[in-house]
TrEMBL record:
Example GO molecular function: ATP binding
Transmembrane segments: none
InterPro entries recorded: AAA+_ATPase, ABC_transporter-like_ATP-bd, ABC_transporter-like_CS, MetN_ABC_transporter-like, P-loop_NTPase
Keywords: ATP-binding, Nucleotide-binding, Transport
ABC transporter domain ranges (all copies): 2-241
Source superkingdom: Bacteria
Protein name, per record: Phosphonate ABC transporter ATP-binding protein
Length: 241
């Protein structure tokens, strides 16, 4: 279980809170969608959870481990086991999709492997299995520059899984994609939650959040204003964000 308590984040010299006393608990296999108006703190929340930005207050407990009390080893655990997917994931476009999956993200991979692209043969088999399961086998040997936006997002998800991600934090992963790609990326994330017990937290527009989320968290002015499971939002809830 993952437990976030009193997460607060300030900005500027006047210490304006952009996240204010956020408390969330989440479990394996949940597909949590985060909704809220522009500037409500959605991306900051994901960046805090990915430890891409400093927390000013709060505790972070993952499967019984107090991440901040464990110091650097706690942070390494999160960076290795949690994947943070940006809107436009970083890839070496000259490398094939397969190579990008194998080499991984910088936070998950030793520097020499990033630099040389060297991989072991059992890594190769594992990566091909994951790529196949995500429906991209025929694209594995394409240069990443030749893939569509939706295919690149799926390759980013494959990369996260090959490197053992148990939690995927995805910030607006379907922005700019066509309807078919949106469906394939979100169905893939939903299936991973159901079948592999991966936990996904993703920022999505309201309509997609309702369609794909098992749980919807609403943010307004850096605060959680609702946290609902297994149903659509009421008009009153929609008006809160
Ligand atoms: N590094 C920063 N310096 C100053 N202000 C920041 C910084 N990061 C975020 N903010 C401010 O914090 C607030 C929350 O930003 P955040 O990007 O988390 O919102 P969001 O809900 O993801 O917005 P959007 O939907 O427009 O992407 C915004 O008002 C933003 O301007």
């Amino acid at each position: 279980m993952i437990k976030v308590e009193h997460l607060t984040k300030f900005i500027g010299i006047d210490k304006q809170p952009i996240l204010h006393d956020v408390n969330i608990q989440f479990h394996k296999g949940e597909m949590i969608t985060i909704v809220g108006g522009s500037g409500s703190g959605k991306s900051t929340l994901l960046r805090c959870l990915a430890l891409r930005t400093k927390w000013d207050e709060g505790t972070f407990n993952v499967d019984g481990d107090d991440i901040f009390k464990r110091g650097i080893s706690g942070k390494i655990k999160i960076k290795r086991q949690w994947a943070y997917l940006e809107q436009s994931p970083y890839f070496n476009l000259k490398r094939t999709a397969l190579k990008n999956v194998l080499v991984g993200q910088s936070s998950q991979t030793p520097w020499w492997r990033m630099l040389t692209g060297m991989v072991r043969s059992d890594d190769y088999m594992g990566a091909m299995d994951v790529i196949e399961s995500l429906g991209l086998l025929e694209k594995a040997h394409f240069k990443t520059s030749q893939l569509s936006g939706g295919e690149r997002q799926r390759i980013a998800i494959a990369r996260a899984l090959v490197h053992g991600a148990q939690v995927i934090l995805a910030d607006e992963p379907v922005v700019g994609l066509d309807p078919k790609s949106i469906e394939s990326v979100l169905e893939l994330l939903r299936d991973l939650c159901k079948e592999e017990r991966v936990t996904v937290l993703t920022v999505l527009p309201l309509e997609l959040a309702e369609r794909y989320g098992t749980r919807i968290i609403g943010l307004s002015n850096g605060k959680i204003v609702f946290d609902v499971k297994g149903r659509r939002l009421t008009h009153a809830e929609k008006n809160m964000i």
